[in-house]
Amino acid sequence: MLSMKLIAQVKLLPTPEQADTLRHTMEQANAACRFVSDTAWETKTFRQYDLHHKCYQAVREQFGLSAQVAVRAIAKVADAYKLDRKVKRRFKTMGSIAYDDRILSWRLQDQTVSIWTVNGRLRIPFICGERQLELLQTRQGESDLGLYKGKFSLSATCEVDEPKPNDVEGALGVDLGVTNIAVDSDGQVHSASHINNVRHRHRRLRSKLQAKGTRSAKRKLRRLSGKEHRFAKDTNHCISKKLVAKAKDTNRAIALEDLGGIRKRVTVRRTQRATLHSWAFFQLRSFVSYKAKRAGVTVFLVDPRNTSRTCPICGHIDKANRPSQSKFSCVVCSFAGLADHIAAINIGRRAAVNPPFVARLEAKADPSLELRQSAVTSHPL
């Protein structure tokens, strides 16, 4: 059986003394990473094996790290240079550090962890939700210690069994957009008006506070930091959960648009740039993908070209079929409806599951035949 990796994040509850020790440990570990990175850059040595032989003893002696923490620091630097070796890698003073089972052990029954620090092992309690506790039962590999806004957390890698995809009957098409976050081929609309209102309100408030520039304004900005992002993320979680549940209950796959690189391809007015670049469509797609895997639902990515300009009845494709942003009206057969709903239907049909072999052969000669044939085999409007 296939498995998928998920992250379970828990919040640590250290005492003030333990928190100071954790900070000092992170400072020392990241200082060691900077030292290793300097050595790697100066000597042009980037492989972990070679770096280990050059830096291991010095890291142990200069920074007071245990053997395994020194190994993980060297590995962190080597991994950072795997992308390219054109730019010297730098590490923040309080950047996250990796722990494996030799220097971190979990005790789930009383929700505590035993973690290595520069002052010895510490037993620290943690809190998390039921979902995280369930995921931690399948924890494997490393856990990352992080510090965000004065709060310590551990992010553990967990492996969850991925069920075999179900045999499906058709596909639930989903059109993604800015005005409507998602519209499925059944006609359900997930509007973006509430998210856009929140974004506009926060954008105006940030502009005013930044222009004010007082100490109280800066404190307010720090409190607002991340609030908009968390709101949008929660909305995407809710929408993806509903889409996957509907597809599973109706025994269908999910068809999504492949929107990779859309920000580079699309040109918009200056007033619309902020709205376009705050559109978290990739996050929604990733949420749908991993939730669908856990539910045994297949996800297809299809070419979004002309999906909102194609008539699902007669198959005619024309820019004139979109008289406005929200309206679709076919210039040939006069079929009309919500443009995003029409696009979702076409997306679902492009990902038709197990189409007839004859239709696929004919589509090579006439691409429009595939759409007309799928209109017969797919569900009606």
Brief overview, please?
Mean pLDDT is 84; it is low at 353-381. With 381 residues, this protein is an alpha+beta fold.
| CATH fold type of the largest domain | Nucleotidyltransferase, domain 5
Task: Report the span from N to C terminus.
Answer: 38 Å
Fraction of residues in helices? 40-55%
Instruction: Please state the second-level CATH architecture of the largest domain.
Output: 2-Layer Sandwich
Helical segment count: 13
Unreliable residue runs: 353-381
**How many E strands?**
14
Label this structure with key terms.
single chain, about 375 residues, alpha+beta, Nucleotidyltransferase, domain 5, 2 domains, seven-stranded antiparallel beta sheet, five-stranded mixed beta sheet, 14 strands, disordered C terminus
Characterization of this structure:
The chain is of the alpha+beta class. It folds into two domains: 3-160, no CATH class; 164-198 and 240-381, Nucleotidyltransferase, domain 5. The chain has helices spanning 16-43, 48-63, 67-80, 130-136, 193-212, 215-224, 227-249, 262-265, 273-277, 281-295, 339-350, 357-365, 367-377; strands spanning 3-12, 97-99, 104-107, 112-117, 120-127, 139-148, 151-161, 171-176, 180-184, 189-191, 253-257, 299-302, 327-329, 336-338. The strands form three sheets. Strands 2-6-7-1-5-4-3 form a seven-stranded antiparallel sheet, sandwiched between helices. The radius of gyration is 26 Å and the shape is elongated.
